[in-house]
Each structure stands twice: as structure tokens, then as C-alpha cells.
Amino acid sequence: MNMNRKMHSFVSSSKGTGTVIGEGVFVEKASLKGSGVVRIDGGFTGTIDISGHIVLGETGSLIGDVSADTALFAGKYQGNLHINDTLHIASTAKMNGNFESVKLIIDEGASLTGACNVPGSEEMKMLLPPIVNNDVESIDSVADAPINSAKTAPKDRVRK
């Protein structure tokens, strides 16, 4: 499936009104707030806070802090990105900054530089040693502990 078809499917499945910053249009030092769908095929610098979806097209360039429910990025981005659900980084994307989302999809060929925070599921946390509960004194003791030690997750908490 090509990128334009992915983006069209992504946008057409969204509810709410849409805002498009078309190719050849540049918005500088702006603050965009609202709900619905925002698509950027031109340039934007500033902050975006959307209760909805943001699409950065292949020709789009975005510099600034972004907060949205879901995102599909195929262009150039620099800044801090907070996505409440799914962040999809397409193969043509060039991303630089700090990224946080619940779900992350990165297509082969995408460029991603920076810190990325994707919180683990509760099931995954059950498999980790109980460091948060101070049952393990240091990360070194976890690394040195044998797999079958009492420091690993209890058998009744591990799913087969």
C-alpha cells in the first residue's frame, strides 16, 4: 500500500473537521489547537495540540511540540511529540526529537533520532524483576542473578 493511500485511509476514517496546510504553504511561530484532523504537506513551526489526528505528509516539514491522539508522520519532524495512542512513522519520515506514545509503528527506511518512550503493557511488566518494589537493590544484582533465582517473576505471574 503506498503512502498516499495509507494517509487517505487514516484521514478518512477520522471524525471531525479537517485542517490542511498544503504543499507550498508555510506557517511560522504559530499555535494550533482544536479537534479533528490536521494534515501538513507544507511547513509549520510552533505548537500543535489536537484532540484527534495529525498527518505529516511526505512533503511536509514540522518543527515544534505536538500533542495528538494518533499520528502518521511521513515528512520531516523536529521537536517533542506526545501521542495518546498510535504513532506511525512511515518509511519516508525523518524524525528528530523526543517521542512518547502508547503504540509505535516504524516502517523500514524511516530515520528516527532521539529519545523514544513507549510504556510497556501490564503483562510485560509482570515478567520484569520487581525493581520498583525495592526487592532488588541495584540493576547490577538483576544482571548478575541467575534466571531461576527468587529475584525473577513468580511462576504464577508468568504466562505460558
User: What's the mean pLDDT score?
Assistant: 78
Order of helices and strands: HEEEEEEEEHH
The figure for the number of domains is 2
Question: Total helix count?
Answer: 3
* Shape designation: globular
The major pleated sheet works out as: 8 strands, parallel
Residue fraction in strands: over 45%
For the secondary structure, the number of strands is: 8
Low-confidence stretches: 11-16, 131-154
Please estimate the helix content: 10-25%
Evaluate the radius of gyration: 20 Å
- Between the first and last Cα atoms, what is the distance in angstroms? 35 Å
What structural class is derived from the secondary structure elements?
A: mainly beta
Would you write up a description of this structure?
With 160 residues, the chain is mainly beta. The chain folds into two domains: 3-117, no CATH class; 122-157, no CATH class. 14% of the residues lie in helices and 49% in strands. It contains three helices and eight strands; from the N terminus they run αββββββββαα. The protein has helices spanning 3-12, 122-127, 139-144; strands at 18-21, 26-40, 43-56, 61-68, 70-73, 76-89, 94-106, 111-117. Strands 1, 2, 3, 4, 5, 6, 7 and 8 form an eight-stranded parallel sheet that branches. The two termini are 35 Å apart. Residues 11-16 and 131-154 have low confidence and may be disordered.
